[in-house]
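Standup notes, protein team

Yesterday: finished cleaning the Roseovarius azorensis set.
Today: Transcriptional regulator, ArsR family structure.
Blockers: none.

Input for Transcriptional regulator, ArsR family:
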Amino acid sequence: MSITSPTARALASLGHDTRLAIFRLLVRAGDEGLNVGEIGQHLEQAPSTLAHHLSALVEAGLVVQERQGRAVVNRVNYVAMRRTLDFLTSECCTGVTLAKADDAA
């Protein structure tokens, strides 16, 4: 089954503890971003493991990568992050009404 919604892809990619930790670390890093080695130092993860998880975040559109010389810098795609947050909060506190059960049934 293919997930086509950008929001569904974003949420699915964040549904893994390591990817969530990477994403939160990159949010803290801001526009400067981090390379895989720096992410590995913070999260105590092997570069090969991180590369796999970063690929999923990039594919979901939540992270962008930029080559700077020999290093690849990873940054949060803040537009995608805000789109996901907006989706989650767009109907916050608007109320929910339930259809009443038909008494005749």
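Follow-up from PR in the comments: The beta strands are 34-35, 63-68, 71-76.
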